[in-house]
## 1
Amino acid sequence: MMKKSMSILLTAALAAAMGTTALAAEDSFLVGFANNSDTYNYCAKFRAYLQEAVEAKGIEIMVTDAGGDTNVQNGQIDDFIVQNANAVSAISNDLDGSVPALNAAIDAGVPYVSFLTSVNGGDDYEGYIYVGSPNVDAGTAQGEYLVEVLPEDAKILYFTGEPNDQQYIDRKQGLTDALAARDDIEILDEYNVQNSKDLGMSTTEDCLMSYDSFDAIVCQNDDAALGVVQALKSAGMLEDVLVLGVDGSDDALASIKAGELSMTALQDAKGQAEAGADIFAQLRDGADPAEIEDVYIPFQIVTADNVDEYLDGEGGAEETEAVSEAAE
């Protein structure tokens, strides 16, 4: 991500706000984190890691759950600002819908750290910092896996999250670009299952009645993929259809180990959380947010061939190196 220069007035306002923060930092530093939804396995895991990593640095953190509601999340970030948080953060719920929360941070001169997902206009704010994984790579990994293992003239279904979420736009782009290596693979249709296990299951049940056959169902997260697995198992079709996910949740890894889920692109929740805690520590210590680099943590591809490596630890977090892009 590239951070573009703001007007002199906004830069001065941010600097003034950060100057005030630096004085207060001798006694305390307060961070607010608005989680997208604790119902998502990955979001819940990330929340726990972030809280642990931030508190280990002696930083106070307020944590809320938006329950997948963008308006609720925006209100929670407003509350953080009212409570004089020195920095606000979120797994931002919507590319456009989360803009009011970003604008509130801009007006208050407070840094905004967006984890995993992006917010429109973030690159124009010098106090905006992104921490996550290169989502195009997750889709690319899924596509490359399918190109290698699918039979000739294969047909697939694509189960997505919300269409106005940059991470899912990027994952779809990576998938379609990789599938272009073969002209005999057809995407029959695309369904927004809202990354829900229940919708993943019910949509699969509908698809089993609507299509004569298909070879794979590709999901943009593990929760939906596990719902697909459950529906296919109930229909006695699991051996005939590949199921792919993203995130590397504990349940997904167990499903791969059991020979059910075919593969997942694992996000390193611990690595992402620790990167966020490091950023908050830099801000506490007086760093200029405009000089703090965005952080990208690579995905780890997990299949039956290597799943044991990830079941034994924290998903390879200790061995994962952050790929950082300097603010420009």
## 2
Amino acid sequence: MHKLIVNKLGPIEHCELICSPFMTLTGFQASGKSTIAKAIYYFRTIKEDILELAKRQALDGMVVGGLEDEFDVWHGAGLKRGLEDYLREKFLSTFGSSWGMANEMYLEYRFTKTCFIKIVLKNDTGYPTPNYIWVTLSPELGYFLREKDHCFSVTPLGVPEEEINLLQSDLYRLFDDRSLVVYIPAGRSMITLLSQQFSYIYAQMDDVQKRSLDSCTKDYLERILRLRPEFSDGLQGLRAFSSRRLPLKMVDHALHLIGEILRGTYRYSNGEEQIVFDNGKYVKINFSSSGQQESVWILNLLFYYLLQQKQVLFIIEEPESHLFPASQKYMTELITLVKNQGHSIVLTTHSPYVLGTLNNLLYAYTTREKEARRADEIIPQELWLNFHNFDAWFVEDGTVENCIDSEIHMIQNERIDEISKVINEDFERLLELQGEKEGVV
């Protein structure tokens, strides 16, 4: 089981948490939920970084030093050195400058007992900048990188596909991780609002400007730009080419939930992103509602990778943004439906409706032995959430607390009602005040 350790980074003072297949992070804003989500993204995408560095090493004539042309390069550098240098740049583009960070800051991710990576700061005049980012690779990983140094050959068509697949399989085994990472950040509506202009804006940005974007947002933008043409025939067009191994009932259920949230369906036509309604009319995405703009690419990415049947870790920030409570329920059910097809989820949320829906799905799973048939009539079994693969964490005061009730295997109600409790206390005090005025108390 993967384990993440974060110390003195952003709002986080210290936390250690096991990374289960479905992780929910909740708590007040600016408590550190996004910091944890970005840390998971940072480490879980390293296997792809190594693959890209190895290809660059072959194609650039044995030069490794980063994935961008502007990165410093070291002629003759090995794959291990190249990864360490790239991870420094990646840290800065994910978390910002290290100059203002505490000297005690460190990040550690344990993929297996013998494969881990640790990031610390070195405050020493021997390094070129204050709080120099120091990367420590486990001996097993270091040995692997030295062994795979210059492992690719080059043909007129590039690196042979079979060699790429072989290294990829080795990386999956080393990191105990086969998942592609798809990060869906908060604040999506602005990106969607500029939909038609964004291709032009992004194309005009130079590499320095692109690197000024945090790596999670950059990954999200580039993924959308790359995948939009796949939706030229809408979601139904994607469905027509879906694998026969996926139950059609389950795919139709996903489409139904998407329709309930969007109040239409998505299509990319003639360079326009559109929400298409049942009557055939449509609205351009930049004129759609804020809820549609916030949710559309969560829905598209979930549905696309559901049909692809490629194992994915979805990191989704605040999926409830700008959605009516009923739509928040449908969104949570869709996320769980996709998770139950072999994917993994990291979810940050402020919403009691999201947490309450998760509790319903967890509770439905507990009926599997005695009341399965009747429970299935209320909540379909493809939405049931196995509590063995689920964890909920409350982020507060610089640390995290597991908020699963160990007896009933559900999220603790007091965490779901954290803000309701404060509101109710204010209301009760007002009632007492009114009672005193009337001489009742």
## 3
Amino acid sequence: MFPSEEIQLNLPDAKISYFPNFFNEAEAHFYYETFLKTLPWQQDDITVFGKTYAQPRLTALFANNNKSYSYSNITMQPHNFSNDLLAIKHRIETKTDAIFTTCLANLYRDGQDSNGWHADNEKELGKNPVIASVTFGEARHFHLKHRRDKTLREKLLLAHGSLLLMQGETQHHWLHQIAKTKRQIQPRINLTFRVIK
């Protein structure tokens, strides 16, 4: 059985749990090497505030249905879940009531790959979406800031083999990002599981 130490982030208007050792070292290393080589990574153009540029990371979408996923003027079509992704999905589902339909995978190739401030609040995710975020590879800081109270900020280092669960009203009240860093770092793979209505 795997360890399931759970850390609850004590933040207002949010329900966020962190499992630093959700996968053991051997599992995390296996998944990292496998996904780095085998996932159908792509780089889309993204439009923000009327400007279009290459998205600063690679992505791939997977689902157990044929429903696309749209954000920032990008519409992605899903691939079928692999057996490895299904195994991860089922393990995460033991920690939540959600049955995930979709996984958006992100590959941060180095410190210049990033994800700007946003909430996972697209309408196809429903009112109070459950977002499960798994990290394999380089640990990166996950930044949170409250939409209205500018004094409320949090920073969490997402470790290799960890799971972060965002539930409840989190996406209504909080924004999150993976910021750029000038440090020389290795790639990070992030699997974000969600339910597309």
